[in-house]
Design brief:
Blueprint: E1 11-15, H1 44-57, E2 61-65, H2 75-83, E3 90-95, H3 100-110, E4 114-118, H4 124-131, H5 136-148, E5 155-160, H6 167-178, E6 182-187, E7 212-215, E8 220-222, E9 231-232, H7 233-236, H8 238-248, H9 261-264
Parallel strand pairs: 1-2, 1-7, 2-3, 3-4, 4-5, 5-6
Antiparallel strand pairs: 7-8, 8-9
Helix pairs in contact: 1-2, 2-3, 3-5
This protein binds S-adenosylmethionine.
């Protein structure tokens, strides 16, 4: 699917829930979050059917994200339903890793190919402070489980303030080298102020190369993370929503003051 700017739109990111088992300071507001009603969240069949339409249109790469995708009940069943769609060449998940010890094996068996795991520090106290609740050992166990289940390459998403030379980022870099993990540095972004930048080691953040569409857990298809534009797949129908999102995908991001990282999935 070529858009107005000749970009080949072949990458769909699906947020399967807005719920998360962590409360990262840069992702969720301190005063709590407004959660979607359960009945508004797309069912597995809706997600599968929309993904089929997107793949028929030319999507070859699918990422499952959240919220935290592993807190969605029956996630491995959904992964299997998506991996059964012919035409997907790359099926991945972005997760905080906390529940991977429990799920890595069955996700691999369901057809998940690889994972990105978020890790901003290897200092246990700082980890608990950043996530407001998490235990770093759960993530380390999750990384080991992902490697054992061959969800490779395991990539680490490390959020930085300004530079990968910051103390925490350097320590995460060393940890990745020692454990043969890929790393991507994501500068802390602000959707409302329109602060975004290129992901170092990844492909995100460069508008001229953007090939992404994002489906939120309640069925809004977003052609750009940094824009309020979205198309409701239930109201418009899957084909029309897809067509409009590709047609109207902006040349470059600006601001998004209607969505958040935890409901769009980053
Ligand atoms: N819960 C999963 C996780 O932690 O990876 C998936 C969802 S999370 C919203 C996806 C990615 O967005 C994570 O790598 C996270 O670090 C990143 N993220 C969240 N808020 C961000 C922000 N304000 N700026 C940059 N990246 C952010």
């Amino acid at each position: 699917m070529l858009d107005r700017f000749n970009r080949n739109i072949n990458y769909l990111r699906i947020s399967v829930t807005d719920r998360c088992n962590l409360r990262c300071t840069y992702c969720m507001p301190e005063d709590g979050i407004h959660l979607l009603r359960h009945e508004d969240i797309l069912s597995f069949n809706e997600i599968r059917d929309f993904t089929e339409v997107a793949v028929a249109g030319g999507v070859t790469k699918v990422r499952i994200t959240g919220g935290e995708p592993l807190v969605r009940k029956g996630i491995s069943t959904l992964v299997k339903m998506i991996s059964d769609i012919r035409g997907i060449r790359d099926l991945s998940m972005t997760t905080n890793g906390v529940l991977l010890r429990q799920f890595a094996e069955e996700l691999g068996a369901a057809g998940l190919q690889r994972v990105n795991i978020s890790l901003d520090t290897i200092d246990p106290e700082k980890f608990t402070a950043i996530t407001r609740t998490g235990n770093l050992n759960d993530v380390f166990d999750g990384i080991k489980a992902a490697i054992k289940a061959k969800l490779l390459p395991v990539k680490i998403n490390c959020v930085i303030k300004d530079s990968k030379e910051e103390e925490d980022a350097r320590a995460v870099t060393r940890f990745c080298k020692e454990n043969d993990l890929d790393i991507r540095y994501i500068r802390q972004m602000d959707l409302v102020r329109g602060h975004f930048s290129v992901v170092e080691g990844g492909t995100g953040g460069d508008c001229s190369l953007c090939n992404r569409l994002r489906l939120t857990a309640n069925g809004k298809l977003k052609p750009c993370l940094f824009s309020n534009t979205e198309f409701d797949i239930r109201e418009l129908g899957y084909v029309k929503a897809l067509q409009l999102a590709v047609e109207i995908k902006p040349e470059c991001g600006s601001i998004n003051d209607t969505g958040t990282f935890y409901n769009i999935g980053g």
